Amino acid sequence: MRTSTRTFCLWGLLLAAGLMALPTAAQPTGPTATYCNPLNLDYGYTPIPNFATSGRHRATADPVITLYKGDYYLFSTNQWGYWHSPDLYHWTFVKRSFLKPYHTVYDDLCAPAVAVVGDTLLVLGSAAQKNFQLWMSTDPKHDTWKEAVDPFPVVAWDPDLFLDTDGKLYLYWGSSNLYPLYGQQISRKTFQPIGERQEMFGLNDKRFGWQRFGEYLDNTFLDPFMEGASMIKHNSKYYLQYGAPGTEFSGYADGVQVSDKPLGPFRPQSDPFAYKPGGFARGAGHGNTFQDKYGNWWHVSTMVISVKNNFERRLGLWPAGFDKDGVLYSNTTFGDYPHYLPTGTADHLQSRFTGWMLLNYNKPVQASSTLGNYAPNLAVDESIRTYWSAATANKGEWFQTDLGQVSTVRAVQLNYADQDAEFLGKQTNTYHQYKLWYSENGKKWKLLVDKSKNQTDVPHDYLQLAQPIQARYLKLENVHMPTGKFALSGLRVFGTANVPKPAAVQDFVVLRTEKDKRSAWLKWRPVDNAYAYNIFFGTEPGKLYNSIMVHGQNDYYFKGMDNQKPYYFTIEPVNEAGVGPRTQVVEAK
């Protein structure tokens, strides 16, 4: 609801009365340090005017992370630079254009390929003509680059560079709803192609339901797209990953096919290995799989917004790995909740989820003002696609969320929305400033986080508290916005509430259609105190690696199956106290 001027003035008087203040929350280090998707990066704005006709907005996608000389390097589409990090949490941006004056394109390093060859980092962007360079550096942290070859001889969109353990270098590429992925060996010395390009494989949406185009997997409007090739090797097997069926949709995912040889033939894993069609921020497609300093596997990929433009997107990071049978998986369960950062060797089949639950889903809210139909409740509806906007960007605009009861708060995520933004392209020296307050009774307020002097751009600021607090109300007060109105797609509060955990789901049934084995209707009896459900599925009862989070309903139409295999399902309820028991596994033949 919109609060009155009287309420706003009263709150101002309370603040002026000299309230108790706590130090700004700091990001803990060591085994307790956490992160939360979408990654809190200083994302650039789309540089393409035709993509901004419905509103200027932040956008990037197609990420690749590699470990080089003890640091992680992150490249993604159209950022006019790249990031480096010592720990996968604190990222430093290096401004850099990889275009030459004669390049007449907006895309600066679109869907890049990155490889470490010897002591050198190689970077290659997508090319529509044979006039783009392969870049090399031994000191990327200080923006020291030169051309490894100019021009690169292969015209490749969505490229990937893979250095095999025998020293041979390969290029993979492709982005089409007609043509397959391609692969070719490249000379490690001259970077010239060796032999002819070879077809790797294409999509088969008639068999694999998740590959169908559209938000509802119905192939309406276009045939599905295949893109984002990315190769890794594990135990002498080659895993060629790819994104499908379209970057605009919740079901945007990364699939994989496996071979004994770098150029095939390949055999498919039935389901995508990186899949997140539900929750606050959806999608887990077109990314890459890499190892951290401790040898653990991770997957970084594209998350979907697609409101102001189809290519409005963010980045997410997921624990990944291989099971004992060589199946590649990525754990996206609670994928936009707080997760622990790596500190050593870990089994990623065991969740890195902290167990901190969302405390304010669809709970009461108040706001200082509202712009049009951008209502306050849209900041707590668990959809990054919807948002509340204040009428202005003025200092003092505020948003308040009510947890319903005094709860233990451990972290807060602030997700800003782009309302009336003015920027095109990557910006530097921009920043958000705010204060975050908390209260047990809505009358006596304490300062939790003071970022009124902050000088950094934090569009998805994640605040892990040094110590948990007891609070029922949290209030975000605007001090400064980098551009546009003060707007939030999600003020998300994490911790635990003093309520019973939900009981197990009853009457869970899977109705797989006889007409189309790719599809099924899942139904269950609602659990009274659950706000969401996690549905787990897979083609073997002991390998339910994929999950779908469903809010506020007790059925789900799942259209992503391999029509040649049986499927297995289980479901668990979720509330502010934790997770209830999973049901027995149900087989759907």
TrEMBL record:
<dbReference type="GO" id="GO:0004553">
    <property type="term" value="F:hydrolase activity, hydrolyzing O-glycosyl compounds"/>
</dbReference>
<keyword id="KW-0378">Hydrolase</keyword>
<keyword id="KW-0732">Signal</keyword>
<protein>
    <submittedName>
        <fullName>Family 43 glycosylhydrolase</fullName>
    </submittedName>
</protein>
<dbReference type="InterPro" id="IPR036116">
    <property type="entry name" value="FN3_sf"/>
</dbReference>
<feature type="domain" description="Fibronectin type-III">
    <location>
        <begin position="501"/>
        <end position="589"/>
    </location>
</feature>
<dbReference type="InterPro" id="IPR006710">
    <property type="entry name" value="Glyco_hydro_43"/>
</dbReference>
<dbReference type="InterPro" id="IPR051795">
    <property type="entry name" value="Glycosyl_Hydrlase_43"/>
</dbReference>
<dbReference type="InterPro" id="IPR008979">
    <property type="entry name" value="Galactose-bd-like_sf"/>
</dbReference>
<dbReference type="InterPro" id="IPR000421">
    <property type="entry name" value="FA58C"/>
</dbReference>
<dbReference type="InterPro" id="IPR003961">
    <property type="entry name" value="FN3_dom"/>
</dbReference>
<dbReference type="InterPro" id="IPR013783">
    <property type="entry name" value="Ig-like_fold"/>
</dbReference>
<comment type="similarity">
    <text>Belongs to the glycosyl hydrolase 43 family.</text>
</comment>
<dbReference type="Pfam" id="PF04616">
    <property type="entry name" value="Glyco_hydro_43"/>
</dbReference>
<dbReference type="GO" id="GO:0005975">
    <property type="term" value="P:carbohydrate metabolic process"/>
</dbReference>
<feature type="domain" description="F5/8 type C">
    <location>
        <begin position="346"/>
        <end position="496"/>
    </location>
</feature>
<dbReference type="Pfam" id="PF00754">
    <property type="entry name" value="F5_F8_type_C"/>
</dbReference>
<keyword id="KW-0326">Glycosidase</keyword>
<dbReference type="InterPro" id="IPR023296">
    <property type="entry name" value="Glyco_hydro_beta-prop_sf"/>
</dbReference>
<feature type="signal peptide">
    <location>
        <begin position="1"/>
        <end position="26"/>
    </location>
</feature>
